[in-house]
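Sequence in, structure out. Go.
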Amino acid sequence: MTEASPGRLSEEQLVDWLRLIRSENVGPRTFRQLINRFGGAGAALDALPSLAARSLRGRIIRIATREEALREIEAARALGVRFATTGDPDYPPLLREIVDAPPLIGMRGVFWTAQRDGVAIVGSRNASAAGLAFAERLARSLALENYVIVSGLARGIDAVAHRATLETGTIAVLAGGHARPYPAEHARLVEEIAERGLIVSEMPIEWEPRGRDFPRRNRIISGLSRATIVVEAARRSGSLITARFANEQGREVFAVPGSPLDPRAEGVNDLIRQGATLCARPEDVTSVLAENAGTPPRKNLFDDDSLEGQDTLIDELDLFAGLDGAAFEERAAPKRFSPPSPPPSLPPSPPADCVADLDAPPRGDEAPQRDAQEVILSLLGPAPIAIDDLIRVAGLTAREVQGVLVELDIEGRLQRHGASSVSLVINYKL
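Output:
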């Protein structure tokens, strides 16, 4: 049996922790309640069956077996993944501060990356060329200021932010397990990130992500970051969920304004109206973070009442409600995880990540099979974009891009601007 280093688990302790956190209906809050009451994962596992039966009127919950935990440990070692607890010195300090921080996370890559101040950059998976170019420049500029860029490995804005900071280190948070990164075409990007940055997941190593796992991932993205920047987001976008979590966690929220004619900018423009800080250049972020260092923002961008009645993101047991152990519950426990709601003026809808992350088709350099004009049209919008930037983010040759632009120009669908910039003609009627 291996002995534990200070703040780290021994192998036997790790087995118990894995068994407990992987057991049915045991999430971060329930895990913490059990550890606080029984003093350790082993004792909590012994007490869990009878405690669950009492609180659930006789229903027995499934407890992860020792064999399952050992298999996960072996699978993690094969991938180079190490588990860290909230007491582990390698555990990200910013993530440790949030309510419902994952008790146990799997990390792969350069562990000290998580000790740096993070800034999350998130946005549309079907982003415009202008949005992608801005996200790329913003990520590089913030990396030069020694911030580590955090994102969710999704297509579009996430992928561009990661790729722009591969050399300086970036953190990718997975919705599934380390053996099942999503989307599959980002497998090479995962390997590149692991060389100098960090891959983080709270899910079992072989877990295939489900729709509801993406909003759950988003609270870790914001939790790793001092600030969250939303570059492009339609209303009800999953990126707004990340902004919601950042606000609840007492972190800064920034939004990059977009054209009112572009649906991809509706969500970020709403954020600005609700009080998010406008981000038009890297200095807008660095100046606020420097000014507010050590002082978390207090403004609330969202209506707290809109959370009521929503399903939880993590199915957790309330083991001590109505029992003698109720005194062991945390008195100041905040509200449960709930998917952030759209603005009150909008009808309720399920989190966009439940669909968008799983169903969004590849685009740009991730979709060479698509027609060149289709790719260019998906990237253009009412905001001007330099043709050189358009060529780079489209993943097409200069000749292909110029050919499409000529066709669009002839059709009257393209507007040319100074400095070799172009935009899409939008037929807007009041």
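Check: Residues 305-311, 324-369 have pLDDT under 50 and may be disordered. The chain is about 40% helix and 10% strand.
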